Amino acid sequence: MAVHLVRQGGERRTIRKYGHGGFTIGAASIVGSVLILPDAAKAWPVGQFADLSFEVFSDILSIKHQIDLCLIGCGPKVERLPPGLKTQLKEAGLHVELMDTGAACRTFNVLTAEGRALAAGLIAI
Question: Could you tell me the residue range of the domain that residue 74 belongs to?
């Protein structure tokens, strides 16, 4: 189930809380990892960084021309993409920035407030 993220009048909702295994985005609580697209958020089937694969980026890749950047919250610490996955995403035209999940949430809020079009895959901590 997706959670609608745009308020009436176009104002974006922000990530209000993260931790304890989930997120609060606007008024909605999501348990587990979350995928945030420009107008919705939904559960993301990534429990840990090692679960990342090209396939889990399919929803983001389908809207890559609508976003400036994809933030990846790696969990409690920043990680590096395996070289093969990094190459696949680059060849697919997706620009990703990796950081720990807390930093990714804060960065998402700042960039969203600036009007940037973002997607984010956030691993729950």
Answer: 2-122
Sheet of 22-25: strand order equals: 15-19, 22-25, 28-31
52 Cβ partners below 8 Å, 6+ apart? Answer: 46, 72, 81, 85
How far is residue 57's CA from residue 112's CA, in Å, rounded to a whole number? 20
* CATH number, residue 59: 3.40.1230.10
Q: 4, exposed or middle or buried, with CB in 10 Å at 0-12, 13-18, 19+? A: exposed
Element (H, E) at 112: helix 101-113
**Which tens digits make up the pLDDT trace of 65-119?**
999 999 999 999 999 999 999 999 999 999 999 999 999 999 999 999 999 999 9
Helix (H/G/I), strand (E/B), else coil: 58 = helix
Q: Which two tokens stand for residue 72?
A: 């990846």
Number of domains in the chain: 1
Considering only residues 9 and 102, tell me which one the structure prediction assigns the higher pLDDT.
Answer: 102
